[in-house]
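Bug #77: duplicate submission created two jobs. Keeping one. Sequence:
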Amino acid sequence: MSDLRIFSYLPNPRIWKATIAARLCGVDVEVRGSSPKELQSWLWDFDAHPLSGSDLTTSADTQTGKVGFTGTLHKTAAFMEAHPFGTVPAAFSPDGKTGIFESNSIMRAVARLGEKRFPLYGRDAYEASRIDSFLDASLVFARDSQIYLLSLISGTVTTEIHSRMRDGFKVYLGGINQSLLPNRDFLVGNSITIADICFVAELALFSNEKARPGELIKKGLEPILHDGIDAECPLAFAHFARLTKHAAFAADLEPYLKKIESSRAAHTDR
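Kept job's structure:
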């Protein structure tokens, strides 16, 4: 039995916070899920699984989808007890009774489970608290990026949404860049921590902007990840590039980022 089970839509860079941490500190994490569209026909539960046609029509565990989902979702009472906000990613203890929600908290759980093998959550209370500071700062960026990326997908991006995201991006990446001055290898301490993992996962998710240039062009907006963006926060982007090649990161990130670049190239060639 795994140490932690995660149910989520896939692919999802935010659950990679947990899987990357798990590879580094030897924790067994099981991931279940499918595409956002297909999750509408899944039973949302510790024992999450696809429902057959007859099960879908007779299921009493139905709720209306919220952010990122439309239509009817099938969530058990046990799922809602473990996950009171009813969102994914949704992690569970091995017995299914304790739910852990929000990707940063799921990542923290993995780090705590494997702390004797690799100190991903810092080496003392001060380092752990500094790591928490980076994770808290990421929440504002994550919220803005979710609104922005969903608006690109739906074709509803506005000048206001774009401006808020552009400003938030500058603040977040600027802080990461400052933290790596003058020549630090990691955000906290002398080795990889969950602060580094969180940063890489959030920037990987935001890279989806590259795959939808058409929506920005229609509105007369400039991409936030424009061709010269690396020069604005060189240490932050170099840190991202270096870690995406690390063995613990590459398994999740390399195929995902290559797909985004392929989609970007396809749009450029049109």
